[in-house]
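Why run this: before we spend reagent on co-expression, it is cheaper to look at a predicted model of the complex and decide which construct boundaries make sense. The entries below are exactly what would go into the expression plan.
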Amino acid sequence: MSTSEHPTGLPLKAEQTFFEDSAIDRLMSMVMTLAAELHVTRDRLAVMEMMMENNQPITSASLDAFRPNPTQKERLNAGRQAFSKELMFCAIGVEASLGAPEEGVGKFNKS
Amino acid sequence: MFEDIPANREFDAYQSFLLDCKLAWTRQLFPVLRDRFDVAARDARPKTVRDVAALMEDDTTAQMFGWFERHLQRMKYSGLRGLTVHYDGYREEILRALDSAVPEHLLELHPDFQQPEYYTSVDIHQHPGGVWSDEIAGFVYERGAQSTAPMLKKSQSLFHRMTAEALTRTDHEVKKVVDLGCGWGGSTQPYYEDHPEIDVTGVELSAPCLRVAALRAAELQAQNVRYKQADASDTGLDGGDTDIVTSTMMLHEMPPSHIKGVLREAHRLLAPGGLSIHLDFLMHNDPFKVWVHHGHSARNNEPFMVPLNGMDIVGAHKEAGFDDVEIVPFEEFDGSLSPDNTAWRFPWTMIIARKSG
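The model came back. Tokens follow.
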């Protein structure tokens, strides 16, 4: 919402924050706003490709009203789920590969 | 009912993306948070919510967990393609549908109705303006409820489960039901749709919600339901002849003093032997889950969850005149109560009482 006014006119409460520096909270909001819009754009592009494959006319209205068939729906869902899963994986803080041992690599140096 | 609102692929894509992120928060982020808590608490198990909060204060996963809970919900309602933002563009179409003729027996509204201050002071669920101040708020709330608990495929199944729980716990024929805080009618519908022998009254503060509920009942040509704008603690309904008084997710939206009033009203409404059954959220036996639950209360603008969780709800029922009170876990979907279910879930609980026969 791009307004800071409440519909009832009551004053809004102070910002609710979760990180030590509220700049991180705000940056996270920007990242997620952009991620959501990127998904919307990716979805629109995928829909456009599907319609072109079927020689359907491409207009703004036809894109808005697009209803995928079961196969198309499966493809679109899989793309969205892969993207959201990857994005949320970043929040977990889990490494994706095996790093060096905490005690160093000296033990591998055979004399 | 709302056929004039056109499909919008971009809105659907946006909302589906947020729901997927919420599912990942539920199924992936929460179990990792639990694991991190278990590691942090290995040497000294916290006994209180305050202890858990102190232990997890600097944990990045805990901060992420809180942030996503707050902001996925904010985006759902108030983001660029949020529910209130999107449907504001179809205000005319929604109001046209809401203005459709509804049979008089279905709906009783009071234009001068004074909302309680506790209700208007907080935007419940982060719904800007609450579910009462905007004419289309009931419609928006109904659409939003589809993704409130992301592990539920459809909120509808929860309402059917709750109705079945109530009906199987009565030991005599049910002819009359009062559904307190019925919202847009999701909890009322299984009674009137599946049980034509039952007369059900839905009571609700919000006129915009009641208009959606009545419109749906009209569409289904229901003859055995009516919706009334009233406070659940002072319904104005006849007393002493109701077989079941129920509510679904209502008690946590009011202060304890008001809950006590609701319990007294439920006792007044019930016939001797009648059943009082409320579905709500209680969590006591696990400080980690209590911490998560109390955090949700703040993050989702549901501040009365904490006082509900802290009050003596059994004692409050007894004060209201009930003498047989049970607290029973509620299985919102098959397997939800299993220890194998490591995903986040609301601590769904039924509070059941009977009026002496």
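Chain A touches chain B through 40 residues (CB under 8 Å). Chain A is about 55% helix and 0% strand. Bring this page to Monday's planning discussion.
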